[in-house]
Design brief:
Blueprint lengths: L1 H4 L1 H9 L8 E16 L2 E15 L4 E14 L2 E15 L6 E14 L10 E15 L4 E14 L2 E18 L1
Antiparallel strand pairs: 1-2, 1-8, 2-3, 3-4, 4-5, 5-6, 6-7, 7-8
């Protein structure tokens, strides 16, 4: 983490010259994702990646598919978790090169055997809410920082998870 602290000022300097020009019809993003799982007083962290596809209906409203894949160790066992969610995204595009957004998504989580102590792979309901910012590097590329609350339920117990991600956004098809 300390290695990446110097990266934020560099990104902001690169973004200083960028200008927003119209609303992109589509945004495709991908990057690193982190999941902090909290269940029954226990917590652990999984690392992975994410990909999103957003269709912007207008300058402030769109729909977003999001896929996250995580891997790590829980109680000495290697586990995987995958989330696939969809929902509305609300963007504020009047700040030039910085676009804050909020979203609410509904979908599923898949946990591998051993995840939260489950005895076999399972799909469960997932709800995510949160937001982030896109910082434009140029008209087509931006850096995305995002944080979400992810609610899941395995073994009749709610998990209150924190999901964070950082990545690049590719914008195309302007309106």
């Amino acid at each position: 983490m300390k290695r990446f602290i110097w990266l934020l000022p560099v990104i902001l300097l690169c973004c200083a010259g960028a200008q927003a020009q119209g609303t992109p019809s589509w945004e495709l993003s991908g990057g690193y994702s982190n999941l902090w799982v909290h269940s029954s007083g226990e917590s652990f962290r999984l690392n992975g990646g994410n990909a999103t596809l957003t269709e912007n209906v207008n300058s402030w409203f769109g729909g977003r598919f999001e896929l996250n894949a995580f891997r790590g160790a829980e109680a000495g066992v290697n586990v995987n978790a995958y989330t696939l969610t969809y929902g509305p995204v609300f963007s504020y595009r009047r700040m030039g090169r910085v676009v804050p957004y909020a979203h609410f998504q509904i979908g599923a989580i898949h946990g591998s055997q051993g995840y939260l102590g489950i005895s076999q792979d399972a799909f469960k309901f997932a709800v995510a809410g949160g937001g982030g910012i896109d910082m434009s590097i140029n008209r087509k590329i931006a850096v995305r920082l995002q944080a979400d609350y992810l609610l899941t339920r395995f073994l009749e117990v709610n998990q209150n998870n924190l999901q964070t991600s950082v990545g690049l956004v590719y914008r195309f098809g302007y309106k």
